[in-house]
């Protein structure tokens, strides 16, 4: 069985930053990424990144290029197309889709996944959760769209889509916005947006390449059905924690850590979106947390060495 000093789960900016710090502090590490490319969510950022100083990047892909070209990343042991499946807290073994590793430290940087709407699981009109309402909105020009959700991302999407779509329905389960006032303001007065409060999708049916959504609503006067071309669920994200059983979580499956990014197991750390919750998800925080976690691991190793001397 392969023995790994620091196993990094996830090749987004958090995992890559951790790999850079491992190299810098002389720790040997292996980074495992489940997809066929490094960068994680960065590939889905089509807007300009202005809040990751000191540079401004025109989109996430440009930042990925810079990261991958980093000399410390070039020297790292990275395995793509391999998924962490489970951990054994007693033996400190990590099982992946391809192997089993014995590890000293595990650093979880698996990011977030979109929440799904079970009723729409088999609906062909549901857009990919990574659909960009800026870069790809022209592909739905003149169509009728249902955006589901009442948070910032739902309203941002509705506002962007309204520039191209014929009609945008915003289906909100509750009776008020979760979105911040600035996003509420952005959709106010847009004539092709209709908000359906306290409304949920109960069923769907495909008819002549369009989708009839059956709705249940507590509000009198809301339609019982709407016909749309596309549906964009924007009902939040959750931490990618499948397989990491026994670790404490908060909110929507986010890993709870102490101030050194350590979870409730002394050999496991969590950094980036998987440990932050949606409100604090950001590049800067992910990078800073990676530094903190790897430095803490390095100090643990030094302490263990000096105690055994
Ligand atoms: C549209 C959009 C715009 C954004 N704009 C900004 C912005 O302008 N400024 C800013 O600061 N932030 C922005 N963000 C947020 C920022 O992108 C994230 O906070 C950051 O990329 C999170 O990085 P991460 O490494 O924690 O997670 P991710 O990028 O999600 O990476 C996690 C990686 O882990 C892999 N993985 C998951 N599960 C497993 C497993 N079991 N085994 C192995 N690998 C696994 C995934 O495939 C993925 O590659 C934006 C996000 C989006 C979606």
Explained architecture:
With about 300 residues, the chain is of the alpha/beta class. It has two domains: about 1-115 and about 235-309, FAD/NAD(P)-binding domain; about 120-235, FAD/NAD(P)-binding domain, CATH 3.50.50. The chain has helices at about 15-25, 60-70, 70-75, 150-160, 180-185, 285-309; strands at about 1-10, 30, 75-80, 85-90, 95, 100-110, 110-115, 145-150, 165-170, 195, 200-205, 210-215, 225-230, 230-235, 235-240, 250, 255, 270. The strands form five sheets. Strands 1, 2, 3, 4, 5, 6 and 18 form a seven-stranded mixed beta sheet that branches. Strands 10-9-8-14 form a four-stranded parallel beta sheet, with helices on one face. It has a three-stranded antiparallel beta sheet with strand order 11-12-13, with no helix packed on it. It is elongated, with a radius of gyration of 22 Å. The mean pLDDT is about 95. The structure holds flavin-adenine dinucleotide. Flavin-adenine dinucleotide binds next to helix 1 and helix 6. Flavin-adenine dinucleotide binds near residues 12, 14, 35 and 41.
């Amino acid at each position: 069985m392969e023995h790994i000093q620091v196993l990094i789960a996830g090749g987004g900016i958090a995992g890559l930053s951790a790999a850079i710090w491992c190299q810098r502090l002389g720790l040997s590490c292996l980074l495992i990424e489940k997809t066929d490319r490094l960068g994680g969510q960065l590939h889905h950022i089509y807007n300009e990144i202005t809040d990751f100083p000191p540079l401004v990047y025109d989109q996430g892909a440009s930042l990925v290029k810079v990261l991958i070209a980093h000399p410390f990343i070039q020297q790292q042991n990275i395995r793509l197309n391999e998924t962490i499946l489970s951990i054994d807290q007693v033996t400190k073994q990590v099982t992946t889709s391809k192997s089993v590793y014995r590890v000293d430290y595990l650093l979880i940087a698996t990011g977030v996944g979109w929440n799904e709407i079970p009723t729409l699981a088999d609906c062909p009109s549901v857009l990919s959760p990574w659909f960009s309402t800026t870069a790809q909105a022209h592909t739905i020009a003149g169509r009728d769209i249902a955006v589901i959700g009442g948070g910032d991302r739902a309203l941002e999407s509705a506002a962007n889509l309204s520039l191209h779509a014929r009609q945008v329905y915003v289906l909100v389960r509750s009776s008020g916005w979760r979105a911040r006032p600035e996003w509420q303001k952005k959709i106010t007065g847009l004539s092709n947006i209709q908000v359906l409060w306290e409304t949920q999708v109960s069923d769907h049916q495909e008819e002549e390449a369009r989708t009839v959504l059956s709705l249940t609503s507590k509000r009198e006067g809301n339609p019982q059905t709407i016909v749309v071309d596309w549906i964009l669920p924007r009902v939040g994200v959750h931490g990618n924690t499948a397989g990491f059983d026994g670790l404490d979580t908060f909110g929507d499956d986010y890993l709870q850590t102490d101030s050194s990014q350590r979870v409730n197991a002394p050999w496991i750390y969590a950094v980036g979106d998987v440990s932050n919750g949606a409100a604090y998800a950001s590049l800067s925080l992910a990078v800073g947390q990676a530094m903190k976690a790897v430095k803490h691991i390095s100090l643990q190793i030094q302490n263990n060495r000096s105690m055994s001397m």
